[in-house]
Task: inverse folding
């Protein structure tokens, strides 16, 4: 009898009796670029702002849980939102807050009718990342209405950049990004980034960011050649 009680106690407190499994909605850009295992990548606990993660309560004691008592808890709660599934009572979706401005962590816990029996269950921790770096490649294309390659008698230059938002081990494809000018006072020529929202693709890329400079339409190369410079 004592041996049976001891075995039952181990079962109830076993870390696998109830646990949270996670699966990101999107595969990380790094996995896509390097050709990694997508199923393994979706199990990552490093996520970007705006990412969505499917949460599943599972384990040996799941059949003993009163499904109506399942309650998902986010700590701190302002770092995201959890929505319970309408179809599967042991599932929910975590959406990371898009307005987070610095890297941080969030914990997910779940409360059930078995809390009195197995109260010490580890929470699931996610490391949240914000975009920290932008890398750009020239596309080889020129901006429309700017001087084009081999075009004569027009002064100016432009390019269309292919951007990549880092880090690539998380996805930013669910959050819009807007460019801000941080030029020093009296910077010339004036820099107007506009207010266009950039939505990164599944590889955290964006096509295209236009940069360029040109003289007014009525100024030609001959005018520049004759101009007195300081």
Result:
């Amino acid at each position: 009898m004592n041996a049976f009680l001891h075995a039952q106690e181990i079962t109830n407190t076993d870390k696998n009796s109830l646990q949270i499994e996670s699966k990101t909605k999107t595969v990380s850009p790094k996995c896509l670029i390097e050709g990694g295992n997508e199923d393994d990548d979706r199990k990552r606990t490093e996520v970007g702002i705006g990412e969505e993660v499917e949460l599943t309560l599972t384990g040996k004691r799941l059949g003993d849980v009163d499904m109506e008592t399942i309650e998902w808890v986010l700590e701190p709660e302002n770092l995201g939102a959890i929505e319970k599934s309408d179809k599967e009572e042991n599932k929910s979706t975590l959406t990371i807050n898009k307005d987070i401005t610095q890297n941080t962590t969030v914990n997910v816990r779940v409360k059930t009718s078995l809390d009195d029996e197995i109260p010490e269950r580890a929470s699931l921790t996610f490391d949240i990342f914000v975009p920290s770096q932008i890398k750009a490649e020239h596309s080889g294309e020129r901006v429309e209405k700017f001087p084009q390659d081999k075009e004569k008698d027009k002064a100016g230059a432009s390019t269309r950049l292919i951007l990549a938002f880092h880090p690539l081990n998380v996805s930013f494809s669910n959050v819009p990004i807007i460019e801000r000018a941080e030029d020093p006072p009296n910077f010339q020529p004036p820099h107007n980034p506009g207010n266009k929202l950039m939505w990164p693709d599944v590889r955290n890329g964006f096509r295209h960011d236009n940069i360029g400079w040109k003289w007014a339409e009525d100024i030609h190369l001959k005018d520049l050649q004759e101009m007195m410079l300081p």
Observations:
- Confidence is low (pLDDT under 50) at residues 1-12.
- The helical segments are 2-13, 29-34, 38-41, 221-225.
